[in-house]
Write a structure and sequence with these properties.
The protein is 61% helix and 5% strand. It is mainly alpha-helical and 194 residues long.
Length: 194
């Protein structure tokens, strides 16, 4: 004789199966769209003469927004400065002011960075892999502790490396850009009171 629990399990199984049928094509389409957008942008990285669609700044994928933002900024810094800066924010200041740093060892950091920078099939440009790594890590507050006691933010490492490589050949100072973004972000968080 079926019990309430067995009815609940059956209903749950049916609901899960229905969600898989409904959501699987949507998830595949989103991933396909992201991969397609990244492939499109990969062809534009070293070709400043081709237009970058500004509509990609509204993509649902962080990597597409960041990469298109950098490429648009590279072509027209004054017009796309705010759009790019908004995508490069790492907002870990509330956690950090509370003393929270997710510290990991060097080996674990390498593994985390490798896992974070996995690109869709056909994306071979390491600059895109760095952008993907930045997007995967920007909200995780992961830090590697150096031998001298200092800390290295994995997200900031990816952001700086990606930006420097994508803006190579321009007069842009990537350290100044990232420092300005971080200073502005930090200013929005009050210092903790002792």
């Amino acid at each position: 004789m079926p019990t309430v629990v067995s009815h609940a399990r059956i209903a749950s199984s049916i609901l899960c199966a229905a969600l898989v049928v409904v959501l699987a094509p949507a998830l595949a389409t989103d991933m396909d769209d992201t991969a397609g957008q990244l492939h499109r942008l990969q062809a534009l990285i070293d070709n400043d003469n081709e237009d970058v669609p500004a509509t990609l700044l509204e993509s649902g994928a962080c990597a597409v927004r960041v990469l298109s933002g950098v490429l648009l900024y590279r072509r027209d810094p004054n017009r796309y400065r705010n759009a790019l800066f908004a995508e490069l924010v790492i907002d870990d200041y509330a956690e950090r002011s509370a003393g929270k740093y997710n510290e990991i060892g060097a080996d674990e950091a390498v593994s985390a960075m490798d896992a974070a920078s996995v690109a869709p099939k056909g994306i071979t440009d390491q600059r895109i892999q760095m952008v993907i790594g930045f997007c995967a890590l920007k909200d995780r507050n992961l830090w590697m502790k150096a031998r001298d006691g200092s800390r290295l933010s994995l997200a900031r490492f990816f952001r700086g490396a990606a930006l420097a490589s994508l803006l190579k050949g321009t007069d842009e100072d990537t350290v100044a850009i990232t420092s300005a973004i971080d200073a502005h972000t930090a200013s929005r968080h009050p210092s903790p009171t002792p």
